[in-house]
User: What shape does this take?
Amino acid sequence: MRRAKFVIMKIVSAIPLQERQRRLVLDAVPGIELVDRQCASAADIVELVRGGCDILLTFIVPEELLQAAPQLKWIQLITAGVDHMMKTPAYNSTVRLTTTSGVHSASLGEFALAMMLMHVHRLHITSRAQLRHQWLPPTEFMKNADTLRGKTVGIVGYGSIGRELARQAKALGMDVVALKRDPKSLRDPGWSPAGIGDPEGRLPRRIYGPDERDALLREADFVVLILPLTSATRHFIGERELSVMKPTAVLINVGRGDLVDESALIRALNEKRIAGAGLDVFEREPLPETSPLWDMESVIMTPHIAGPFKGYFDLTCELFAENLRRYAQGEPLLNEIDRKLGY
Assistant: This one.
């Protein structure tokens, strides 16, 4: 093990930390300096780091960050994706960059599962009927309601979230297939809370590669998108891919809005070429009031809220503390991104 020469590090957090969270960070490496403050804008962060910053914990990455903090060595993002900062000087620098991949695993897995449960049990239909004060007849559900048991879920993006969704889906008797960039690399190299996910990649019946996406789309009753957004994944699902899916299939997107060609999806839903969609993310956010998606009965929509939950920053600080320990010891960091791949 290569041991780094320790010097006092100054850590700046662009979010205010609770006492337990501060303690996790401070106890990771004795002698570090920690400054935390609520930063509502890029300008707030720039002002905060001017006082010196070796390591930054942040959502936002300002354009002027490196000018304001030339000694910056490492950014710990409070997001799983890096698409929002790819055009910044910090991304195109030698500053180390890690994400919170794994922190969202249980929350996003459950969210995708909830959307699947709503569709099979027709809960999106009953919620709309409730607003109309309408009591639906049981015949509606005898004809159309179903269960998840025996259905196939195709998980597109088998990272920490996809692996936890696989574990949850398996518990409900679902068949699981997945797609990942390197289907031969089964082990999860990232961070996850203990006891969740599929660390060894054993749960899917089959793991497909990117050139086999049509095979997954043809057999999946639910196609769940959990990919990072890169130049290679933009409009990963478009007109051609939607035409491959079963007419009874449901598309669920809890990744990024630009993974889906929204116009093609609207056409497929209007023409009933697929059965429905569960969407937490959109090409434009907030979704314009003029979008046809608002009024589609077969669509469940949420306003990009699948990730946040009450314990988010607690888990973030657990991951950050472990990475601080590794950093001080000269060990590999968890969730360090590959800039060529974009995740």
